[in-house]
Write a structure and sequence with these properties.
Largest sheet: 10 strands, mixed
Number of helices: 13
C-alpha cells in the first residue's frame, strides 16, 4: 500500500500502471481527482534578486549593463512597470512574499530602536511556525518545492542546531543556500577583510581614546596618580576593546555557513563561485522534479554587497564590479530558463522575476566608491517608502498562457504571487487569516484592466509612511507620504549608523497634510500636488489606513528583545570547535 505523504507529494501511479489500467483507475472519483491534480498543473520558478535597482535592467531602461535573459522574460511575457516590493528591506519583504501578508502580521515590523531586519544568524527571531507559506500550500497539494540561495528569515530557536526556522520547516522540501545574508564582507574569507570587523576596530579605537581621555582627566584633577592613570587606561582599554573585537573577528567566520537542508556543508562559505553552484543546483532541481509540478525559489545573494563574481565575469561589464555582478546573475537566469526549455517545461511553467526591494544608496566601498544599484529616475532607495526603495524590476513569462511583450502600468505587489500561484495550482487560499496578496492572473492575461489592489500600505518598521490608492474607476493611482526620512544635504540617502534611513523620531519628518502625488503621471515623485484640491482623496486614504490598522492583530515581534539579540548558544558550527568545513564537490 502506498500512502500520499504530506511532505513527499503524490505517488506516481504511472510507474505501476499501464495506460489502460490508469484510465480505468482514474474512472473512479477519488482516483480521478489524484490523476487530474497531477496532470496539467503549472510549475513556478520565482527569481528574487537582492538589492537590485529598477534602473539596473535593460528592459527597464538600462542601456549599458547587458541583461539579455531577463529582457527576454519581459519580451516573451509581461513587464510589470508598477510592481512594488512588500517592504523596502530584506527580511520583511521576503516574509511578506512567502506568506502573502504584510510583514507586520508575522512580527517583522521593527519598533523604535529595533533593527529592521534579522541582524545576526545566532538569534531566535524568524518566520513564525503558525504562518502559512506558499511553499507549504503547494507542498501539501503534491508539488515538489525547493529554495536555493538566500533565506534571511531565521534559523535556530533554542540551540545551535534545532533549525526551527529552517526553510525545510516552512514548506520547502529541498534547501541549498545561506540561512543569513551576504553582509558587507562577512561572507568573504577573513583575509579579504570584513566590514563588520573594520567597524569593530573603529569602535575599539574610539573606546581606547575615550579611556585615555578619562585617565588623563582623572590625573589632571588629582584624583589618581600618573601611574594609576596609566594602569587604568591600559586595563580598561583591553577590557572594553579587545574581547569584542576578537569575538567579532571569530563570529565573522561563522555568520555565513552554506547549508543543504538541515546540514552545514561549508563554513565559512567560499563565495566566489557561489552563483555558479546555485545555478547548477537549480538546473538539477528542474531535472529531478520534471515529472511533478514544482515550485522553485531562486533567491540570489547578489547584488548585495560584498560584491563577488566568478572569474568568467570579472571585467565583463562596463560598470565595474557591480555591473559584473548583475551580468553574472543574468547569465544564471538564462541557464535556468534554458534547463526548463531543454526539459520541455516552458509551456507549463510560470517564470516570475523580481527584486526584494530597491538599491542601497548608502552602500560604498572603503575607498568611498558607490557600489549599490541604480534607481533610475525614481526617488529614494532601500529602506525608504519613496518609489526608488519599493518599485522593483518585475517581469512574468508563461509561454502560450500570457501575452507577449506587453507592459502593465497598474500597481501590483510581489505579495501577489502567493494568491496568484495558489489559485493557479488549484489549491485553496487560507480563509482563517487576512491575506493581502491579490490574484493578478486576470490582469496579466489582460482580462482585467484595473489592479485588484485598491489600497497598498508602505511600512517603515511598524509605522506606515505612505499609502497608495487606486480608485476603481479612472486611470490615476494616488500616493500620499505621511512620513518621510531626513536625507543628508543634497542627497536622497541618510547618514545613520545602521546605514539606512530611520523610521521614527528625529530621523523623519511628519507631513500633515501629507505629500500627495499622482503616481501614474508623476512616478518619479517630482511634483507634490496642492492637497487642498484633493481633500476627498486624502480622506479616503486616511480612512483606509485606519481600517487596515484595526485589522492588524498584535503578534510577538521577531525584531526586538529577546528575539533579535545575538546568543552564542544559537551560533551554528559545522565541526566544533573549529567551525570550518568545505563542501565536497
Amino acid at each position: 500500500m502506498y500512502i500520499l505523504g504530506k511532505s513527499q507529494g503524490f505517488f506516481d501511479f504511472r510507474r505501476f500502471f499501464d495506460s489502460s489500467t490508469s484510465k480505468l483507475f482514474c474512472s473512479f472519483l477519488f482516483a480521478s481527482v489524484l490523476c487530474n491534480v497531477e496532470a496539467g498543473r503549472p510549475n513556478f520558478v520565482v527569481f528574487i534578486v537582492d538589492d537590485l535597482g529598477i534602473g539596473d535592467i535593460g528592459c527597464f531602461g538600462n542601456d549599458t549593463i547587458k541583461t539579455p535573459n531577463i529582457d527576454s522574460i519581459a519580451s516573451q511575457g509581461v513587464r510589470l512597470n508598477h510592481n512594488l516590493a512588500p517592504y523596502s528591506m530584506c527580511t520583511p519583504s521576503r516574509a511578506a512574499t512567502l506568506t502573502g501578508r504584510y510583514a507586520v502580521r508575522s512580527g517583522f515590523a521593527a519598533g523604535p530602536g529595533d533593527v529592521r531586519v534579522i541582524s545576526e544568524l545566532a538569534m531566535s527571531g524568524g518566520l513564525p511556525a503558525n504562518e502559512i507559506t506558499l511553499a507549504e500550500i503547494l507542498r501539501d497539494d503534491g508539488y515538489r518545492t525547493g529554495l536555493i540561495g538566500k533565506w534571511h528569515l531565521g534559523l535556530n530557536c533554542e540551540n545551535n542546531n534545532d533549525s526551527c526556522h529552517n526553510p525545510i520547516n516552512a514548506g520547502f522540501q529541498e534547501y541549498y543556500g545561506l540561512p543569513f545574508t551576504n553582509v558587507g564582507g562577512i561572507c568573504t574569507r577573513p583575509e579579504d577583510g570584513a566590514r563588520a570587523v573594520k567597524k569593530s576596530q573603529e569602535k575599539a579605537r574610539n573606546r581606547i581614546i575615550a579611556t585615555l581621555l578619562l585617565a588623563i582627566g582623572l590625573y589632571s584633577l588629582g584624583i589618581v596618580s600618573a601611574k594609576s592613570a596609566l594602569i587604568f587606561a591600559l586595563v580598561f582599554s583591553i577590557i572594553f576593546s579587545l574581547p569584542p573585537l576578537i569575538l567579532k573577528m571569530v563570529i565573522s567566520r561563522m555568520e555565513c555557513p552554506l547549508m543543504r537542508d538541515f546540514n552545514i556543508v561549508e563554513q565559512p562559505v567560499v563565495i566566489e563561485n557561489l552563483t555558479v553552484r546555485f545555478t547548477e543546483e537549480a538546473k538539477s532541481f528542474v531535472r529531478r522534479n520534471k515529472e511533478h509540478p514544482f515550485l522553485l525559489f531562486m533567491c540570489y545573494i547578489k547584488v548585495h554587497t560584498s560584491l563577488f563574481t566568478s572569474p568568467k565575469f570579472k571585467g565583463h561589464s562596463v560598470h565595474g564590479n557591480y555591473g559584473d555582478n548583475v551580468e553574472e546573475m543574468d547569465w544564471s537566469v538564462g541557464e535556468i530558463i534554458s534547463s526548463l526549455r531543454d526539459e520541455n517545461l516552458l509551456t507549463n511553467t510560470m517564470v516570475y522575476f523580481t527584486s526584494d526591494h530597491g538599491p542601497h544608496l548608502e552602500e560604498t566601498m572603503d575607498t568611498g566608491e558607490y557600489c549599490g544599484g541604480w534607481r533610475g529616475n525614481y526617488t529614494g532607495g532601500k529602506g525608504q517608502s519613496w518609489e526608488g526603495g519599493i518599485r522593483v524590476p518585475t517581469a512574468v513569462m508563461w509561454k502560450d498562457k500570457l501575452p507577449e511583450g506587453i507592459t502593465i502600468n497598474e500597481p501590483t505587489n510581489t505579495m501577489d504571487i502567493f494568491t496568484t500561484m495558489t489559485k493557479l495550482a488549484g489549491s485553496s487560499v487560507p480563509e482563517d487569516r487576512l491575506i493581502d496578496g491579490k490574484d493578478i492572473f486576470p490582469l496579466l492575461k489582460q482580462e482585467e484592466s484595473v489592479s485588484p489592489h485598491e489600497f497598498m500600505f508602505h511600512y517603515c518598521g511598524s509605522s506606515i509612511h505612505a499609502v497608495r490608492y487606486r480608485p476603481r474607476d479612472g486611470n490615476i493611482t494616488w500616493k500620499a507620504h505621511f512620513v518621510t526620512p531626513i536625507w543628508s544635504p543634497g542627497k536622497q540617502e541618510c547618514e545613520r549608523e545602521d546605514i539606512v534611513c530611520g523610521c521614527f523620531g528625529d530621523h523623519v519628518v511628519q507631513h500633515d497634510p501629507p505629500l500627495l502625488y499622482d503616481i501614474t503621471n508623476d512616478p518619479y515623485e517630482s511634483n507634490p500636488l496642492e492637497t487642498g484640491d484633493y481633500k476627498d482623496v486624502i480622506l479616503k486614504m486616511k480612512e483606509a489606513t485606519k481600517r487596515h490598522k484595526l485589522g492588524v492583530k498584535p503578534v510577538p515581534s521577531q525584531l526586538s528583545y529577546p528575539h533579535n539579540v545575538w546568543r552564542s548558544s544559537l551560533q551554528p558550527c559545522c565541526n566544533f570547535p573549529y567551525c570550518t568545513c568545505v563542501e565536497n564537490s
